[in-house]
Design goal:
CATH architecture of the largest domain: 3-Layer(aba) Sandwich
Radius of gyration: 24 Å
Largest sheet: 7 strands, mixed
CATH class of the largest domain: Alpha Beta
Bound molecules: 2-acetamido-2-deoxy-beta-D-glucopyranose
CATH superfamily of the largest domain: Phosphoglycerate mutase-like
Number of strands: 11
Number of helices: 13
Oligomer: single chain
Number of domains: 2
Length: 389
């Protein structure tokens, strides 16, 4: 009996091993962490202090690693140098925002390094970091990387004077006017036309006509008619909420909830137009597919690709995948994972650490061919021509 059981266990184990789906490529799209408000609204003064530093090493004589670096330069934002009290500019990543990405990096360390998928030590051949060229986006990528590897470097591995042995980690950016990890109406004028059209439909107008009461409440609370659109007010409050900065007097959590519903409606209405989400982030989706194809054909050693962007990066990706998420929160992430089982490849998607079944596929592990075909059907054949009709 014991022998039989043992045999059964062994057989079971072997079958398990041979049919196991193995992760081969992990791609993640993230929104930056918590930040200061983008829109300054008069009468909403609060003190904002920013502690994340922009450090630069001189590029002369810098061959990448283990250089003797006598000076590191630091950009310091002047106290009260901007619209806010304190030393933050608008939209700057805060200490808390950096922590959120660092925590996400720790999560990836546990799920991807500790499991043996990624090497114990940073290997530039395995990891690729791509970021929109904004301070908060780059710093979010850097914080995530710190959580993934930096916090696990042993004291004993550092030689005298850490700055002399620091390893350089590339964060790949591109010119903002050509950036496609963000809806870019300069790059794609037709996207601008579609958005304008979507924002002048009867549905859009009717919905906004129904918001007159809420708008009046804003006028009462802020004591002025000179207010930005509700979405911008929400942006300011979202930043305050994330940092426990009190709301202006009279702004209850119930009103905040109503504003967040308006945001959901607007984001959802805009991005659920598939043409809009495709022209917003279709080139990003193309990158995902291309990396998968390279992997399947053994033409790439990359295992972890981080695309660091905005809410407007993560959201259209999710709508293309078939999920109506509205505006994604700070430090949210969509993970698109490629698995291999014998000779078959599968794609699995998670959002905010939860596995999601692609509605048009119906299986958690969606066969790669199904995924690829679906995306090729919705992506334009010629981006340039679709964008310049
Ligand atoms: C902002 O001010 C705080 C408090 O004085 C200080 O700790 C921090 O280093 C300053 N940040 C920058 C970026 O200069
Ligand atoms: C999102 O917007 C679309 C188009 O207006 C609508 O059909 C859909 O029901 C909305 N989704 C949610 C979750 O409200």
């Amino acid at each position: 009996m014991k022998v039989l059981l043992l045999t059964l266990i062994l057989v079971f184990c072997f079958t398990q091993v041979s049919t196991e789906k193995k992760l081969v490529l992990f791609q993640t799209f993230t929104r930056h962490g918590a930040r200061t408000p983008i829109y300054y609204i008069k009468g909403t003064d609060a003190l904002w202090l920013c502690t994340n530093m922009f450090n630069e090493i001189p590029s002369i004589n810098n061959k990448g690693t283990s250089q003797t670096i006598p000076y590191i330069f630091q950009k310091q934002f002047q106290m009260d140098g901007g619209q806010y009290k304190g030393n933050c500019t608008s939209g700057m990543l805060t200490t808390q925002g950096a922590s959120e990405h660092r925590a996400l990096g720790h999560y990836f360390h546990e799920t991807l390094v500790d499991t043996g998928f990624l090497s114990d030590k940073y290997d530039p051949n395995e990891i690729f970091i791509r970021a929109c060229d904004d301070g908060r986006i780059r710093q979010s990528a850097e914080s995530l990387f710190t959580g993934l590897y930096g916090d696990y470097v042993q004291e004993s591995e550092l030689k005298e004077g850490a700055s002399n042995t620091a390893q350089v980690v590339p964060v790949h950016v591109m010119e903002t006017s050509l950036e496609y990890l963000n809806p870019n109406t300069k790059l794609c004028p037709h996207l601008g036309t579609l958005i304008t059209k979507r924002h002048s439909t009867k549905e859009w107008k009717d919905y906004h006509d129904g918001l007159k009461d809420l708008e009046q409440k804003m006028v009462d609370i802020f004591g002025t008619e000179d207010l930005p659109p509700l979405g911008h007010i929400y942006d300011t409050l979202e930043a305050r909420e994330a940092h426990d900065v009190p709301f202006p007097e009279g702004l209850t959590s119930d009103i905040y909830q109503q504003l967040s519903e308006v945001m959901f409606w607007e984001w959802n209405y805009t991005n659920s137009d598939l043409e809009i989400s495709v022209l917003s982030l279709g080139l990003g989706m193309r990158d995902i597919l291309q990396q998968m194809v390279l992997k399947i054909n053994s033409l790439s050693d990359l295992k972890f690709i981080h695309y660091s962007g905005h809410d407007s990066t993560v959201s259209p990706i999710m709508y293309m995948l078939g999920f109506q998420i509205g505006q994604p929160p700070y430090a949210s992430h969509t993970d698109i994972q490629l698995y291999k089982e014998t000779d078959q490849y599968y794609v699995k998607v998670s959002y905010l650490k939860k596995d999601k079944i692609l509605p048009w596929c119906g299986e958690l592990y969606c066969p790669f061919e199904t995924f690829y075909k679906y995306m090729m059907d919705i992506l334009p054949v010629s981006y340039y021509q679709t964008c310049h009709p």
